[in-house]
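Structure in, sequence out. Go:
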């Protein structure tokens, strides 16, 4: 059978794209191929579970627009499908003079982005978050928490109800596009579709290369390591607590995150991973490491961000150094509070000249669209991203 659409990848971007394609093209046939035995197995199922408001991003940028629309769309989707989410807000805490200056920049940015945010002085911060200390803070009430695996399960039900097929355990190993269609192979099986959208996260550069597209960047895995607090400390915070980010490296900064199951996680950090999909601490894939070591962009990134890379590595190796970062704003934490928790791995696109790609990156040909970079907050933004992709395929 020939399908109208084939989507590769059962993370939130692939599922949201499938949902948008079927909404825009009622009655179309669609097959979604996922290599693992379950949906949301990689980035989507190993993230902080935050529905972001999007205050960091440059006003008018695609990222700001998608995040703001995504925050609303995700909450509406959850409400419509009975998925629990909690709008607990996020408190950005400044712990030194430089962060206070950056915090003022975020106050302006929130205003420019039309996002409600409340500036808190030291005593107001202390009143609202008695276990948190800082020189000042910014409270963003719209930030929420959710389990993105549940969001994906509901998306899967929506697309299946619209007639889509979801095939698990189908690792795409061949893609051949012609003037009329695209043939996608997974071992001995194959599917033919009019259009293909690949949302393969950590494997996205490999899929694009497999499809014969000109790929100049490379995906580099950055581990995000978390700890979990003991359940006796579940009430340590009321909102999500974030340090004020460095605008050059907005994804750095260990935060305290309330989770939808009632627990609290600490993290993530960001260290160069030794495997794209190995979640254990020292999991190594020789193929993955050899590939990025031979990529000049990686060496340039490491040289450019030497200081941060060293600090993140030390934090990863020494629990005491990791703890030091959290104690800057939550001094009551002790080493024994940091209990093991699964890591996540970010698919970070890096260019040959050593730039970290902070925005979405798409590679297109007549019959294909490959999502080659979908960085945080892509879980929040997935619904409008899917809409944009579906619209682009119409054009
Ligand atoms: C540690 C961490 C914390 C984060 N926190 C947040 C947060 O709080 N809020 C937020 O909005 N965002 C967050 N993000 C970002 C967000 O999780 C990702 O941007 C988003 O999940 C990307 O979704 P995806 O569908 O593109 O990728 P993925 O979820 O990685 O899905 C890609 C899928 O493609 C499949 N695949 C790959 N190759 C093949 C193949 N050859 N054949 C078939 N299938 C294939 C994979 O198995 C996988 O299921 C975080 C990310 C990380 C890593």
């Amino acid at each position: 059978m020939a399908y109208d659409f084939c989507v590769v990848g059962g993370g939130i971007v692939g599922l949201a794209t499938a949902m948008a394609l079927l909404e825009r093209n009622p009655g179309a046939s669609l097959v979604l191929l996922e290599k693992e035995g379950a949906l949301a197995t990689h980035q989507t199922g190993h993230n902080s579970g935050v529905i972001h408001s999007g205050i960091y991003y440059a006003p008018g940028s695609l990222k700001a627009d998608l995040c703001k629309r995504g925050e609303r769309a995700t909450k509406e989707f959850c409400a419509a499908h009975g998925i629990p989410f909690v709008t607990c807000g996020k408190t950005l805490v400044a712990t030194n003079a430089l962060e206070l200056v950056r915090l003022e920049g975020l106050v302006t940015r929130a205003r420019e982005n039309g996002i409600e945010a409340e500036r808190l002085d030291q005593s107001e911060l202390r009143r609202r978050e008695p276990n948190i200390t800082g020189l000042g803070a910014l409270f963003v009430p719209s930030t929420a928490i959710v389990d993105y695996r549940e969001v994906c399960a509901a998306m899967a039900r929506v697309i299946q109800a619209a007639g889509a097929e979801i095939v698990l355990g189908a690792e795409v190993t061949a893609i051949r596009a012609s003037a009329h269609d695209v043939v996608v192979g997974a071992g001995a099986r194959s599917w033919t579709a009019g259009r293909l959208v690949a949302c393969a996260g950590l494997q996205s550069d490999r899929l694009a290369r497999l499809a014969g597209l000109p790929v100049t960047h490379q995906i580099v895995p950055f581990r995000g390591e978390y700890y979990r607090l003991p359940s006796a400390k579940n009430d340590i915070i009321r909102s999500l607590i974030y340090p004020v980010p460095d605008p050059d490296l907005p994804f750095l900064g260990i935060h305290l995150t309330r989770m939808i199951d009632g627990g609290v996680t600490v993290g993530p950090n960001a260290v160069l991973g030794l495997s794209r999909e190995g979640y254990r601490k020292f999991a190594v894939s020789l193929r993955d490491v050899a590939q990025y070591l031979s990529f000049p962009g990686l060496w340039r990134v490491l040289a450019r961000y030497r200081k941060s890379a060293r600090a993140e590595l030390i934090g990863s190796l020494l629990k005491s150094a990791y703890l030091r970062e959290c104690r800057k704003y939550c001094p009551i934490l002790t080493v024994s509070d940091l209990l093991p928790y699964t890591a996540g791995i970010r698919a970070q696109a890096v260019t040959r000249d050593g730039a970290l790609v902070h925005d979405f990156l798409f590679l297109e040909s007549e019959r294909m669209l490959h999502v080659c970079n979908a960085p945080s907050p892509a879980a929040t933004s997935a619904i409008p991203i899917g809409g944009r992709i579906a619209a682009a395929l119409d054009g």
